[in-house]
Amino acid sequence: MDNEIEKIDFLPQIATSARIVLASMAICCIIYSLVILGVGQFFAPYSANGSLIRNEQGVIVGSETIAQEFSRPEYFWPRPSAVEYNASATGGSNLSPTSPKLHSRAESIIAKLCVSSDRKVPADLVTASGSGMDPHVTLRAAEYQAQRVASARGLQVSDVMKILAEHSKRTGGFLTPEPLVNVLIVNMALDRIGG
After folding, report:
1. Comparing C-alpha atoms, which of 77, 113, 78, 75 is closest to residue 190?
2. From start to end of 38-165, where are the E strands?
3. What is the pLDDT of residues 113-146, one digit of tens each?
4. Alpha carbon distance 121, 91 (integer Å)
5. What is the mean pLDDT of residues 83-106?
């Protein structure tokens, strides 16, 4: 009986493993990505390309699906953002409803809104969404801001309310509990009428 240990040639096994890794990378990283890109471009090119909104001059001013900050009085304000409207770092604050920091932020926003004691502030004006990038506010929250926007633009409140009514919609159909308003689209509509 031969006591010598048989030598194993690992080269074929390494070559096979390398081929499997390369094939898997090609399928998962390249082919799959290109197929999904192609499907998106064919069936929903607007969404696949970021739902970009352009002004009358053709300049991109934002995305229909990502919030951006508005703080001037002549514009409707979006929900607060836990990520400072940074789309590369979306997420909530993960603060509990009893958090002093969350309470302080809400009080600061309420003070900024110049709330009179007889008007209740809609919750979405003082609370961030889970992503921190929700481009919508409820119609109720937009109507709450209508007086400030109309005064800052020198418009009648009824004209501002008409724009809100024209641009409000239930994005989830009958599943959406109340109409929503896309803040960027409404602000662009206001810029078009002037004031």
Report:
1. 75
2. 52-54, 60-63, 136-138
3. 766 656 788 888 888 887 888 899 999 999 999 9
4. 23
5. 81
- Region for residue 170 given its phi and psi (left: phi exceeds 0; alpha: psi -120 to 50; beta: otherwise): beta
Alpha helices in 70-172 (DSSP H): 100-112, 139-153, 157-167
Structure tokens at 94: 């993960």
**Angstrom distance (rounded) from CA 43 to CA 29:** 21
Q: How many CA atoms lie within 13 A of 46 on its CB side?
A: 6
Strands 180-182 vs 168-169: parallel, antiparallel or unpaired: antiparallel
In tens, the pLDDT along 36-94 reads 999 999 999 998 898 999 988 889 999 999 989 998 999 999 998 888 888 887 777 77
Other Cβ atoms less than 10 A from the Cβ of 40: the count is 13
**Residue 60, SS3?**
strand
Residue 125, C-beta contacts closer than 8 angstroms, at least 6 positions apart: 77, 79, 80, 109, 113, 137, 141, 144, 145
